[in-house]
Design a protein that fits this description.
This protein is an alpha+beta fold and 238 residues long. 18% of the residues lie in helices and 29% in strands.
Amino acid sequence: MKPFEYSTEIAPGGHWSVRLRKGTRMQITDTAGNANLGMLFYNPENLLERYNAPDTLKCQHTFKLTRGHCLYSDMGRIFASIVEDSLGWHETVCGNLRAQQTAERYGVRNYQHDRNDWHQNGHDAFLVELAKYGLGEADMAANINWFSRVATNEAGKLLLVDGHSTPGSQVTLRFEMDTLVLLHACPHPLSEAALYPRKPVHISLGVSPPVADDDACLNHCEENRRGFRNTMLYHLGR
């Protein structure tokens, strides 16, 4: 496999967006442990097509995301496949922390006064990136929270599992279609940390080998086979 050709780090509370070509692989690494990386996908050729969390979970008969799972659009196509995962559990149901929640938990800090020590939230971080492409709050879908695991208590309340991700935990995605990727390294909305979590995430990009007949994502379930066929049809003749 070819080495990664580009790398960058998303600083704690930072955000980024990038257009990736079909056949790109992205490796994300929790460098310090206990990170949270919010992520959204859009079709750069048709921004109305975006990541669909309910369909992603429903068609693969799962609540968590891990190796072998595909990440679906609302058109039944596959944005990306999870080809490697050292952690085994990532969630896509809890959404983002918002400004008011952030201020209540960690106090008010703004960039003008506190610079890189300010308290950014995932909702506003995504809005900043969405605005770069003419999108807004109405275009925000339910996002993935990489490195985060949730569980229910006896009352049925969702809780974030503290310490789930250890330093060096990694996930590798293979992009099956051209994709606009939005991401942030802001705290998980269910975090109960006493201080604002400052956890960086490392990003590496390179070229992925083609999908083989024995591919774990392709063969995970029949629904994924249909998803790959739908995606192939979308690219037919290009």
